[in-house]
Amino acid sequence: MKKIKAALLGYGTVGQGIHEVLHEHQERLRILLGKEVEIVAILVQNPSKHKNLPENIVVTTNFEEIITLPELDVVFEAIVGEEPALSYLTHALDKGVHVITANKMMFAKHAKSLLEKARENDVKIGFEATTAGGTPVIRTIEQLLQVNRVEKIEAILNGTSNYILTAMSERSIDFKTALAEAKEKGYAEADPTNDIDGTDAFNKLMILSQLIFNDQPAWHKVEKTGIKDLTSTDIQAAQENNKKYKHIAVIYKEGDQLKAEVSPLLLSSSHPLYNIDGVDNAIAITSNIVGTITLIGPGAGKLPTASAMVEDLVAIFQHEPENHSIHQYKDQAAV
């Protein structure tokens, strides 16, 4: 039986999750794809830390050693930061290798150029994991784009900030205490700046903008406000009025202009995102026919993110759409 040969770029939490899912679900993958999926190489920073990996897997710090492997079909990219991830994926696409990424920072900035390169080289890009982890936001929007015109997105796209606001609201603690608790539970990084100042949600919003509108607003014009200045008094006043603060990413089209914002907003109990608490992500999608639908699920974590990336793998090798992203970018004006 011919195998799909895959490489992992990065072997942290997400990379290990991909390895685990592929190993434990080979039978299901064979049913879906008619082939086994074999990890043939893993890019790591320190090979000596991964001596327990099977001997048939190339474990290396050198990307060239991976990309020159014969019959490599796909790379899973789970590296933090813009570089060297962008260079690696660009090289992979040039070599005719499919790519699947979870790198929201890099993809928000370079989605357009990477998709063009994929088209040029007749390969595909999977990026479901860049927006809401294991929650199938992108696939749902893709389906809506067939007939519906998406008019507006309102979303909670960062589990750390959502956890902090939930803790402040439910237990009347201040921001500093809630942040320390989030770190202790592993919901916040040692440096949580990108989560609490809205940068993470902004990057995800720009990816959704590219998907929905085939364009992005000028980044410098998008207002981005964090949650660190919210006080216990603010939270209590909201509760007294049966409202909650949520860190919301919004994008919509006004005439020919894309409008976007990431900021703490006061939501009433009738809002679809009002009851989204803890570390969950959610996205309320408003379209011209179906109205508003809301997706809720885990936004990050080892298995949710790995799940999204393996689902992308299946979509790439199970179907052969004309578009060179497995998630279609369309011109909304044509709908």
UniProtKB/TrEMBL annotation:
Active site: 204
Keyword NADP: yes
Binding site for NADP(+): 10-15
Residues reported in the UniProt entry to bind NADPH: 104
Pathway: Amino-acid biosynthesis; L-methionine biosynthesis via de novo pathway; L-homoserine from L-aspartate: step 3/3; Amino-acid biosynthesis; L-threonine biosynthesis; L-threonine from L-aspartate: step 3/5
Swiss-Prot/TrEMBL catalytic activity: L-homoserine + NADP(+) = L-aspartate 4-semialdehyde + NADPH + H(+)
Residue numbers binding L-homoserine: 189
Keyword tags: Amino-acid biosynthesis, Methionine biosynthesis, NADP, Oxidoreductase, Sodium, Threonine biosynthesis
Domain annotation Homoserine dehydrogenase catalytic: ranges: 136-314
EC numbers for this chain: 1.1.1.3
Ranges where the Aspartate/homoserine dehydrogenase NAD-binding domain occurs: 10-128
Pfam families: Homoserine_dh (PF00742), NAD_binding_3 (PF03447)
Signal peptide (UniProt feature, chain positions): none
Any GO molecular function: homoserine dehydrogenase activity
Source organism superkingdom: Bacteria
GO process annotations (BP): methionine biosynthetic process; threonine biosynthetic process
Sequence similarity: Belongs to the homoserine dehydrogenase family.
NCBIfam families listed in its UniProt record: PRK06349.1 (NF004976)
Official protein name in the record: Homoserine dehydrogenase
